[in-house]
Amino acid sequence: MMSFLQDLCYLAEGLEGRSSNPVALLFDFLNHPGADVGDKLPSSLEWLFDPSRARSHVVLGKQCPGGCWGEMEDSLLTLSHSHWLELPILSYQQWLKQCHEPARQSNSHHGSRTGAGSVGRYYSSYVGEMGLNFVSNATVTSLEHFDSKLEMTSSGRGDGDLKRKLDAAVMPQAKRLPEQNDSDEAVGSCPESPSSVVSNFSDSSDDSGCCSCPCMQYSAMSLSNSNCNDRHQYNWMLRGWCTTSSKCFKILAKTVVLACGTNDRQNVLGVPGENLSYVKNAICFKEMTKLSSLSKPVVVVGSGLSAADVILALLERRIPVAHVFRKKAAETANLFAKLSANTYPEYTHVFRLVTGKETDSCYRSYPQHVVKSFDDTKKCELERIDNGRIETLECSLAFVMTGGLADLSFVSPKIPLRGANSPDHSIHPVNNPLAVDPYSFAVDGVDNMYAIGSLVGDNFVRFVMGSALGVVNHLTKTS
Q1: Under 8 Å CB-to-CB from 167, ≥6 apart: which residues?
Q2: Which of 145, 221, 344, 469 lies 20 to 30 A from 78 at CA?
Q3: CB contact at 8 A, 152 and 200
Q4: Positive or negative CA dihedral for 422, 424, 428, 429?
């Protein structure tokens, strides 16, 4: 039987697949045997809950559990097959039966896809079903090394401050833990009063430290007073605020795991008018309901799958589309050509529209064009790259779907985060993921910090759990 304490480096040796991280591949090989060759075999893993291995922790999320998945609708089908998106113990199909929820399915001999909105609800429900310690609507604004002497001098609150006592700041346990009486209480023990949830509030109307913020009360972590003698245990200080109450919080932690994804900071075109209200950088179904086949065209900028999702949603509603992208049509179509027509018929349809193999009266493409500007009269100026010709389009909406990056602005500039491929350039999920140890996911050059998910190049849910395994394995062996 494989334990999470085994030598993951040895077990993962020689594995190859769709992730560059060997431990993520190891976990995926065991959890989804034969997935990359089309097999749908049961997982080889058995989940056993051991309370003695539990680590106190909390997950801080800008949004509700599931992140951007919760903003999607069922009209969008997932890129991955539904069983690749499942989390341990409670499968997606089990959840569907429990909640009696019909899910949009697309079946083929390669597997099945499902409605993205349904997956978002599954992730949100999963947190409650498993009793995980997740704090929603919590925006971290500062992460820095903790100096107990400086903190005592600057805070002026002395021993009266309530501090979270954490070992790790991301990984949840598989089951709710029983309450414990020691000072480092386990997940699942609920605070007796709201005041024990967050410390050191800076709200101008109430600086007493009492929090009535629902998102912070969601956390099931008991807190204890932190005195002068034990503050040296902590390595990190996190500051932030609750977006639903505007209350501020401060947390001390021994270890931090970065799992913030790459949807927080959208790539921008850097052109005039890009911040106008009719220019969107995420799919927005509510805005589409206001349009019809008689509306001015919707400008869609981008050549990836996110742009294709917007195009499909618009065409389904028979709303005119002006598709703008800088590459030649054949180059843009390369991405779609890699997708199986049986499994991804809708993307194949976009591929054929882009290449001119199919036509649609509501679709017009503008290859080798870039946006020069948007104005407040809803006019979009385009420039053709090869000859400089200018064209102006009247539009009803514009979607700039050019991808996103991780927002790591909250990390202190004194903390050296470096890219794996180009240390001097910004972190990019594809071209320059964050440099980490491939087996422990410890951030290179930074003690007591880990990173998982798209920050380290794993952009699929099926591989993220392997990253978590590497973190827990290393934490357990080194502490």
Answers
A1: 55, 56, 57, 184, 253, 254, 255, 475, 479
A2: 469
A3: no
A4: positive
Q: Is 36 exposed, middle or buried (0-12, 13-18, 19+ CB in 10 A)?
A: exposed
The overall average pLDDT reported for the chain is: 79
Q: For residue 145, give the 3-state DSSP assignment.
A: strand
The values of phi and psi at residue 190, to 5°, are -85, 140
**What are the helix (H) ranges across 338-460?**
345-355
Q: Which distant-in-sequence residues (6+ apart) come within 8 Å of 130 by Cβ?
A: 89, 90, 172, 173, 174, 175, 176
Q: What is the pLDDT of residues 162-219, one digit of tens each?
A: 333 333 333 333 333 333 333 232 222 223 222 223 333 344 334 333 344 433 433 3
Question: How many angstroms separate the CA atoms of 390 and 383, rounded?
Answer: 5
Q: What is the pTM of this model?
A: 0.77
State how far the Cα of 375 lies from the Cα of 259, in Å rounded to an integer: 37
Read off the tokens for 416.
């050296």
State the chain's maximal CA–CA distance in angstroms. 73
* Separation of alpha carbons 388 and 285, rounded Å: 34
β-strand 236-242 against 111-114: which pairing, if any? unpaired
* Gap between the Cα atoms of 260 and 453, Å rounded: 8
Query: In this predicted model, what pLDDT tens digit does every residue of 271-290 receive, in sequence order?
Result: 999 999 999 988 888 899 99
The packing angle between helices 329-337 and 345-355, to 10°, is: 170
Tallying the residues shown for the chain, one arrives at 479
In this structure, the number of other CB atoms found within 10 A of the CB of residue 221 comes to 21
Instruction: Look up residue 201 and give its two tokens.
Output: 């509030």
Residue with tokens 């699942």: 188
